[in-house]
Amino acid sequence: MAIKKLGKQTVKFKNPPYIIATSATVGPKEGEGPLKDYFDTILEDDLYGENSWELAESKMLRESVKKAIYKADKNITDMEYMLSGDLLNQLMSTSFAARDLGIPFFGLYGACSTMTESLSLGAMLIDGGYADYLVAVTSSHFSSAERQYRFPLEHGNQRPLTSQWTVTGSGAAILSAYGQGPKITYVTTGKVIDLGIKDPNNMGAAMAPAAVDTIVTHFKDTGFRPEHYDLIVTGDLGAIGKEITEEMVFDRGYNIAKVYNDCGLLIFDNQAQDTHAGGSGCGCSASVFCGYIYKEMIKKNLNRVLLVSTGALLSTTSSQQGQSIPGIAHAVTITNM
């Protein structure tokens, strides 16, 4: 019997896990943005001492895990699971980091929704009594993502104004059955939503319908209203996707304007840094949550947050075959209450 199930797609935890520590690592461009003071590590160059961008991304993820574990005053051997993913084929960055860390590993792929996917599943593991400590982590890298999904950087292709800038960053969160800190109290698992957008340079429009579906379902399942939250924040919809989401949620009876923002708009100064529609990538919501949002929650400036990481489930193959872009969004309620 699903005694913790609430409504259609939401789980309410009986033993909410604590987030006892986080760590955020970002690249040089992100380190020049509005949230620079919230990140644990800012790289001096995006190769991070490695021979490829993919290995640099893997190192970011690995070091974020190590730093979060250190901040939690734990050891790597205390971690019973690592739930992680990235944007690269076969989860290259994540798998190589998991190899080096030696933590029992679940590899996840939810595109840029992977941070809340990992937090959701990690919270279920702890609430279910299957672990006491685990790490949820993800990453992305501008150069590795551009090379896989778009064009070789050497081409210097002009980017349309609807495009977004993949965040070079990683965020790791330590979840625990014990301790202090913000707790994950609810999880609303998203459905794949596809309204037919085919433009891979307009990810915000492709992902927005999934964010809308998850946010509205969360409200219906829980009975919460927007004013229940200090912040409702999507993962990487950028300027275009955020506007679409706000309007579509309003059309369904909820005005989220006063409490709504997007990690892709928080991490960069779009005009000053020329990031067009904003930030994107797995590392976008990961680094913004594990840096800015978590630290503001520790200070009690934010006490109840709905984090909704968003993902575009396309591949180079599906795009080349003319397929539309399916979207996904998972929501987690994180609270000091």
Q: Indicate the structural class.
A: alpha/beta
Tell me the quaternary state.
single chain
Mind summarizing the main beta sheet? 7 strands, mixed
* CATH homologous superfamily classification of the largest domain: Stage V sporulation protein AD
Number of domains: 2
Overall pLDDT score: 95
Write out key terms for the chains shown.
single chain; 337 residues; alpha/beta; Peroxisomal Thiolase, Chain A, domain 1; seven-stranded mixed sheet; six-stranded mixed sheet; 10 helices; 15 strands; 34% helix; Stage V sporulation protein AD; SpoVAD; Thiolase-like; acyltransferase activity
Commentary on this structure:
One of its GO terms (molecular function) is acyltransferase activity. InterPro entries: SpoVAD (IPR010894), SpoVAD_sf (IPR038369), Thiolase-like (IPR016039). The strands form three sheets. Strands 1-2-10-15-14-11-12 form a seven-stranded mixed sheet, sandwiched between helices. Strands 4-3-9-7-5-6 form a six-stranded mixed sheet, sandwiched between helices. A two-stranded parallel ribbon has the order 8-13. It has two domains: 15-176, 3-Layer(aba) Sandwich (Peroxisomal Thiolase, Chain A, domain 1), CATH 3.40.47.40; 183-335, Stage V sporulation protein AD (Peroxisomal Thiolase, Chain A, domain 1, 3-Layer(aba) Sandwich). With 337 residues, the chain is α/β, with parallel strands linked by helices. It has helices at residues 53-71, 92-101, 114-127, 142-149, 203-222, 238-251, 263-266, 270-273, 282-298, 316-320, and strands at 5-6, 10-12, 18-26, 41-42, 81-85, 105-107, 133-140, 165-166, 169-176, 183-188, 231-234, 260-262, 279-280, 304-312, 327-335.
